[in-house]
Design goal:
The chain has 79 residues and is α/β, with parallel strands linked by helices. Helices cover 43% and strands 22% of the residues. It contains three helices and four strands; from the N terminus they run βαβαβαβ. The chain has a four-stranded parallel sheet with strand order 2-1-3-4, with helices on both faces. Strand 3 (48-51), helix 3 and strand 4 form a beta-alpha-beta unit. 24% of the residues are buried.
């Protein structure tokens, strides 16, 4: 099963995306910002990341930069 990490500071957006992707058969993990996402990536293998651009603490562009360095094979979609 493919696993997708959703990163968004808005709870409703995380829940809507999770519902849509779960319905399509994806295993979905959730993070409220980029720092939480990086912690999740340390212990979970993900096949893709969908992230918001503007978030507190670590935004989507900073997350993109870190993931490209530390997990270069993981594709990222910024919304």
């Amino acid at each position: 099963m493919n696993r997708i990490l959703i990163v968004d500071d808005e709870l409703n957006m995380r829940l809507v995306l999770k519902a849509m992707l779960s319905k399509e058969g994806y295993d979905v993990l959730l993070a409220e910002d980029g720092l939480v996402a990086l912690e999740i990536l340390k212990t979970n293998q993900v096949d893709a990341i969908v992230t918001d651009l503007k978030m507190p603490r670590l935004d989507g562009m900073a997350l993109l930069s870190r993931v490209n360095k530390e997990y270069p094979s993981v594709p990222i979609v910024i919304i």
